[in-house]
Amino acid sequence: MRFKEDIQSGKFVVTAEVGPPKGTDLSEMIHRLEGLKGKVTALNVTDNQSAVMRVCTLAVAKIITDMGIEPIYQMTCRDRNRVGLQSDLLGASALGIKNVLAMTGDHPVLGDHKNAKPVFDIESVQLLEIINGLNAGHDMAGLELKGKTEFFAGAVVAPEANPFEPQFAKFEKKIKAGAKFFQTQAVFDMAKFMKFMERAKEYNVPIMAGILLLKSAGMARYLNQFVAGVSVPQELIDELASADKPLQKGIEIAGRQIAELKEVCAGVHVMAIGVEDKVPEILAAAGL
Amino acid sequence: MIVAETKSLEEIRTMLNSYDRVLIVGCGTCVAVCHTGGERAVNLLGTTLRLARKVEGRDIEIGEQTVIRQCDFEYLDQVQNVDKYQVILSLACGVGIQGMARKFPNIPVLPGVNTTFMGFNEEYGYYTEMCKGCGECILDVTGGICPIARCAKSLLNGPCGGTNNGKCEIDLTRDCGWILIYDKMNNMGQRDKFMKINGPKNHRKANNLRYMDLRNWI
Question: Is residue B214 part of a domain?
Fold first, then answer.
């Protein structure tokens, strides 16, 4: 477990993420992750990402722990009430998981079970406070725990969100609520990101820039149209469109972005959706 | 006011399939405003059902009445000749439909509408949801804009990452409630108030059976 130590000591940190598959056969996912050991400091395990039902985060976090990869347990408030969330957190702690990323979660309407009842009993800011409480040895009802947790809790922020001021206010609230690190939504607009970093500086909390691997021009256009807070510039779309091997081009672009961001933030968080095995190539392209 | 929408004709016809003497009772207050439950809606539905049955070659006898409110026994007393019918189709909100079912325990009362929300009359024919009746009003700390009703996730501390040019991630035609709240509070010089963390909601206030007892001082 060195994610917390590394990021707190100011070492440049690289994380990646994996989305658990839909089904019980995890062999392909495990195969994709095998080369990541030693290449990334920690690996996020997403929580029914985009509100699409998949294998539970906790199981995959445990599986990758056993593979020798440190997990960052993503937890959304979409599917569980405060009893379920705290119960899962205690379970995660019992399994030796230390890093938690608290997020609100995408609405079920965006996923594959659109008629589900959204829970949102509590939300990201409150979840961070709850995690602090568990670390202090009590649940949110104030009841004492037999054995407390030792979570290192982080949160997310979207530096390119529009409008930005309310997002920044929430970023501040998350720090107040106990977020010890941040991973950002995919960053493409360097000017906007620098402006965000300039303002975020005074809070003295490590921020990891989100790097999203663009696999094709079509994917980039899709992101622009359907994913909030992500905006891929036209010149990158053109670059991908004219490339013989778009995926290779995407790896090159991601490497370039990391090299540029390396100077300004505490680390990078690489999202290589479905091709996690390419992460080492991206890092090599960045000169890491 | 309470907003409701008329059920589809197909659904209503299926519910009424085994009956041939139907009393449609409208409600003259909230759902009349949104054209779902008033006298005109009752007449229109009555005419449509008669026509539909005619096409089928089956007879139907339809009575049409509208009272001021179906959520009040005082007005339910005005519903007449119920014995002539096999079934009541109520065009009131869910409260009125249940009032009708209590008032007439021996005859089936069917819902002709789906009750949808408590809304504000923005302009003629356009209503927006404003309140979820959660039992724990926090409009004092949210600039008079309710995030329980107007944020798709009912968040309490600001917008989610899904806000998109000030619109909601689940419906791009709908304003993000939290952007509205932030702008309003910021403009009023209340950003400090916005920055206070709101704790988790007490859902017992929303989910428990509730009543209001004013009998001692009326």
Answer: no
Q: Over the stretch B2-23, which tens digit does the pLDDT of each residue have?
A: 999 999 999 999 999 999 999 9
- Residues in chain B within 8 Å Cβ distance of A109: 152, 170
Spatial distance between the Cα atoms of B88 and B93, rounded to a whole number of angstroms? 14
Pairwise CA distance, residues B3 & A90, whole Å:
43
pLDDT at B109: 98
Q: Do the Cβ atoms of B156 and A123 come within 8 Å?
A: yes
Rounded mean pLDDT of B111-133? 94
**B199/A contact by beta carbon, under 8 A:** yes
pLDDT in tens, A81-139: 999 999 999 999 999 999 999 999 999 999 999 999 999 999 999 999 999 999 999 99
The reply to whether B218 falls in a domain is no
Q: How many domains does chain A have?
A: 1
- Is B208 a residue whose pLDDT tops 80? no
The verdict on B113 and B140 lying in the same domain is no
Domain encompassing residue B11: 2-117
| Chain A, chain B: beta-carbon pairs less than 8 Å apart | 98
- Quick check: A185 pLDDT over 80? yes
Determine the pLDDT at residue B89.
Answer: 98
Under a CB-based contact definition with an 8 Å cutoff, are residues A73 and A97 in contact? yes
What one-letter code names the amino acid at A240? Answer: L
Instruction: Kindly determine whether residue A165 and residue B182, on different chains, have CB atoms separated by under 8 Å.
Output: yes
* Chain A interface includes B165 (CB < 8 A): yes
Q: Which pLDDT score, from 0 to 100, does residue A227 have?
A: 85
| Count: domains in chain B | 2
DSSP, collapsed to helix, strand or coil, labels residue A137 as: coil
The answer as to whether B215 is a domain residue is no
What pLDDT score does B204 carry? 87
pTM for the structure as a whole:
0.93
Report CB contact under 8 Å: A162, B165. Answer: yes
Indicate yes or no: CB of B170 within 8 angstroms of CB of A109: yes
* B37 located within any domain: yes
